[in-house]
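Reviewer 2 asked us to include a model.

Predict the structure of this chain.
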Amino acid sequence: MPLGTRLVAVLTVRPERDRAARLMVEDPLPAGFEIESPTLLASGDVAALDWLALDTVAEHTEFRTDRFRAAVDWRGPDRFRLAYLLRATMPGDFAHPAASVLDMYRPAFRAQTAPGRVWVGDAG
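Predicted model (structure tokens):
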């Protein structure tokens, strides 16, 4: 992808069973990417992303330089979706770490995505 490309990262969590849980969702960023406009999602102003049908379930979100985090209180078998904006800021071939979800009070209940790779080309 070209340097400067803006992306929407979408995290979909599907509970294994109908059980109340306090979840921590974490998505580490690949090197060469930065979260863009964290206040857009932190403020709940996601009108630009209404096509995603996002759920406003996060009790707390953190937009760090190397990761996105959200705390979610959830009960039920239905899935929920979280999203944030990011931008490719450095050219290179980067490892894309796995995203994860963890039940904060029952750490044996956890899941993660597959890791991957992402290539960012020089704009010039």
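The longest helix spans residues 38-42. The beta strands are 6-13, 21-28, 33-35, 58-63, 67-74, 80-88, 92-96, 100-103, 110-112, 116-120. We have added this to the supplementary material.
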